Amino acid sequence: MLARLFSSSKRPFSSLSDQEILALAISSEEDDARIYLAYADQLREQYPQSAKVFEDMAEVEHTHRNQLIEMHRQRFGERIPLIRREHVSGFYERKPDWLRVNQSLDQIRAEAETMEQGAYRFYIAAAQRTTDAQTRKLLGDLALAEQGHEEIASMLGERHTPEDVKKEEDASAHRQFVLTYVQPGLAGLMDGSVSTLAPIFAAAFATGDTWQTFLVGLSASVGAGISMGFTEAAHDDGKLSGRGSPIKRGLASGIMTALGGLGHALPYLIPHFWTATITAAVIVFFELWAIAFIQNKYMETPFLRAAMQVVLGGSLVLAAGILIGHG
Question: What are 65-76's pLDDT values in tens digits?
């Protein structure tokens, strides 16, 4: 009973026959070709040159598959046993399509490199296992071909994605990152940091009660985060504007809005009023300069102009909150 419970349903690689090794190689090449074509489909609209690279790599995999099928036909006939990577222990498992749809261009390139390295190791091990000289030669040749896939990808990249195209694609990926995450996140951080200053500090100086001030800050921050998140997600589906998934933008905006307000609300968990207030004011100072830095780095706003807009505006809101609280 215990043996059945802990035993693996996967076959050890050492138990495979020559026919099963060939069948496994055939199915592996088919799977890799499908993955490369899926990458090509995913990249075609935004990165057409890189998509062409993966189409050509899929064609190489199809060529390898045909060579393996011909070898199987010569040695074992027409019927190819059904055996795949997931049936054999020790293999790097490929992700299904639905887990690859949100990968970045760099992640796709890294995944393809991992696939090639895994295929190379498989063919080296398979060539050592087989006893037929002709099959051993084919598997060894395919191992060298897989080892050279990085060079093939490089040559394909030079043909389809020259340096200027790669720079353009990288710039496009950066723009998409800014539109989907940075821009809505920055808008949320600004709203959360600045708009909650007045109610939090007004409550602090009006009540002198740190706990009540914290509750006001918590409610203002969470409420603003929910409002900003839903507004960002609802007003633009991203299809025409190209700003990306509304869910991702909504989460970026909502989370950063809430964090912007909580930054100077959390110090009021400190029971001593002036300690909490001074700590909150210091945090506000760093929040405003962080916003100016992000504007300068990602939105290409001149730093001094960003600092004047954010720091001056935030200081005015802070002063308004203190004056209202004292009143």
Answer: 999 999 999 999
